Amino acid sequence: MDHLLKHSKHEIIPCERCGTAIECKANSYTKCQCSVVQLSINEVQYISELYDGCLCAKCLFELQQEYREDIGV
Q: A Pfam family for this UniProt protein (predicted)?
């Protein structure tokens, strides 16, 4: 496994919320798994107040739903 990580173009990191291993593609955002969740500016702000690091798409979607429930959407 370590051998594979050294040859990967992108860093493998844990999701800050659930710990799932995700491939960070910050230098290639449109190809990153987190780009599949379309967040509004307000949703991004809400999530960034809770977490500093990268989150997997599943957690981003769950937090988006949590935010929308909180504001009554």
A: Cys_rich_CWC
